[in-house]
């Protein structure tokens, strides 16, 4: 390796070390958390929009079924009266309504599939954010504060633990 190449590597390594010290890891971590929170907010909006679209498609499908049922009643009247021309027109409208209902059902199914995917993605991102927030808390708190917060979180003691400790205390006192 040439002398110039070795010097270039040393300079590059030193520049990277300087940049690492200049960039505050805590600030970068906090920014990453803010970015993740923004992504979650966008994902929540998508989920809300998808739910609204699903509800709207369900309402349209219900209206189409109701219209089809009304057309059935009108078609019965036409057939009883022997009015074939009007019967054909109503049959056409009934078929169009059935096709519309089928397309609405297909679109609703596609929206529901997309909703499930977005909800799954949201849950995964939420878990990642919680993990990042925990890491950030560990990195940004002072060692004393980290010990205090760990002690505060671990103060929950279950009834079974109390019972076992009590039995041990009782046993120790009876053995004296």
Write up this protein.
The protein has five helices and no strands. The protein has helices spanning 3-22, 25-81, 84-140, 143-153, 159-174. Helix 2 packs antiparallel against helix 3. It is flat, with a radius of gyration of 34 Å. The N and C termini lie far apart (78 Å).
Structural class: mainly alpha
| Range of helix content | over 70%
* Average pLDDT rating: 82
The best one-word shape is flat
Number of strand segments = 0
Spell the H/E element sequence: HHHHH
Oligomer category: single chain
Note poorly predicted spans.
Answer: none
Write the layout of secondary structure elements.
Layout: H1 3-22, H2 25-81, H3 84-140, H4 143-153, H5 159-174
Helix pairs in contact: 2-3
């Amino acid at each position: 390796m040439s002398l110039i190449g070795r010097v270039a590597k040393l300079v590059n390594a030193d520049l990277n070390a300087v940049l690492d010290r200049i960039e505050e890891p805590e600030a970068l971590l906090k920014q990453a958390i803010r970015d993740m929170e923004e992504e979650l907010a966008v994902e929540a909006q998508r989920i809300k929009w998808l739910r609204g679209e699903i509800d709207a498609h369900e309402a349209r499908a219900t209206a189409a079924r109701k219209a089809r049922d009304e057309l059935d009643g009108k078609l019965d009247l036409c057939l009883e009266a022997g009015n074939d021309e009007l019967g054909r027109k109503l049959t056409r409208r009934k078929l169009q309504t059935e096709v519309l209902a089928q397309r609405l059902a297909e679109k609703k199914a596609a929206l529901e599939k997309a909703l499930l995917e977005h909800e799954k993605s949201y849950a995964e991102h939420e878990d990642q954010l919680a993990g990042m927030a925990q890491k950030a808390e560990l990195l940004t708190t002072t060692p004393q504060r980290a010990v205090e917060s760990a002690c505060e979180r671990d103060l929950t003691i279950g009834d079974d633990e109390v019972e076992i400790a009590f039995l041990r205390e009782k046993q120790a006192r009876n053995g004296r």
